[in-house]
Amino acid sequence: MSASERRSLPRRAALAVPLLLARPAGAEPGWAGLAADALAPIRHAAAAADGPALLKSFTTEGREDFDRVHAEVAFTYDNALAGLALLAGGERGLALRIAEALRLAQEQDRHWQDGRLRNAYPAGRVFAEAPRSIRPPGWWDAARGQWLEDGYQAGSAAGPIAFAMLLWTALGDPPFRHAAGRAADWLERLRGPRGFRGGTIGHEPAPDALPWVSTEQNLDLAVAFGRLGRGDAAAHAAGFVRSMWMEAEGRFAMGLAPDGAVNRGSALDANLWPALAWPGQGLERALDWVLSRHGLPSGAPPAEMQGLDFNDDRDGIWMEGTAQAALLLRRLGRGALAARFANTIARHRRPDGWIAAASIPWLTTGLGTGLRPGMADFLYPARGHLAANAWAALAALDVSPFG
Length: 403
What we know:
Distance between the termini: 21 Å
CATH topology: Glycosyltransferase
Largest sheet: 5 strands, antiparallel
Structural class: alpha+beta
InterPro entries: 6-hairpin_glycosidase_sf
Signal peptide: 1-27
Number of strands: 17
Protein name: Cellulase
CATH class: Mainly Alpha
Strand content: 5-15%
CATH architecture: Alpha/alpha barrel
Shape: globular
Keywords: Signal
């Protein structure tokens, strides 16, 4: 799940940065100010690495399970998105550092040599001189007396790999095009009768297959395959996305459940991203569905909304998704609501420059990590979040990751 899914001596890159802000946190900076504020900590973290590096996804400042498990985590999706935001902000050199770190991760995995990427790696510098050294992130469990690694983070979901391909192809250098091609070769193995399956979860040598099919991930794949000229694969992914359009409701279903049944749940990214990737095709109607089902305050008319929840229980605002909506709203000429959403994001920018993932301590998503079957245990915390900054920067710069 990119948005909609999800550790030796750790190589760490601190997510917190010195105060870099030109205005107090919580001020309403306008689009140019939001772009500068959202990019500043990403730029600082990438520049501090002095070479190819992956950036830490969340600030970790407490003693809860989340902080222990995510102490060194650099999610592939978050980093690819950060690279795209840097590129949009004119920081090609810094975007190259992230792109090269992802390429080296693909080349130097401790086990896989087939073009896939894992969902996460340890944050920090990646060294070309250290072959087969790339591992999943992890943490030391003192009670058990052992090193642990999270099965989701060790796995390989289609969407995050597709986002790495979007970064590599946006940069366009031959080594990156080659890396994108290798990734595409692996992703094509996930092809099913309808769309492409979710990928894998768990550790080598035999991770479990993810049999569900995601509307959002197939949208990512359609764009990524298309950039490589893989027309048949792109059409297969795009055809699945379009088959999930529910005309009577003017929105997309989430995809297919493992048993092949249509998952009619309401997913924010599955409904916003197609309109960003394929403008002018009538898919913009899905935005109104999202506003009516995910908008906060609950029951408010759109003009009075402050942001969007990840799902439709509306227990809090998800900053990453609110930024995605702000970008689409701008492109549809709904500037006033886009600005309201931008101001909400700015109010949740922390003193260290990082934007909180959620407006409440723990935001529910209704999704599971896959680590505890049957449990909706995937939550977003009120911690600084790399992807929230990246999407905020893209919205402020009016740049879509899908081109």
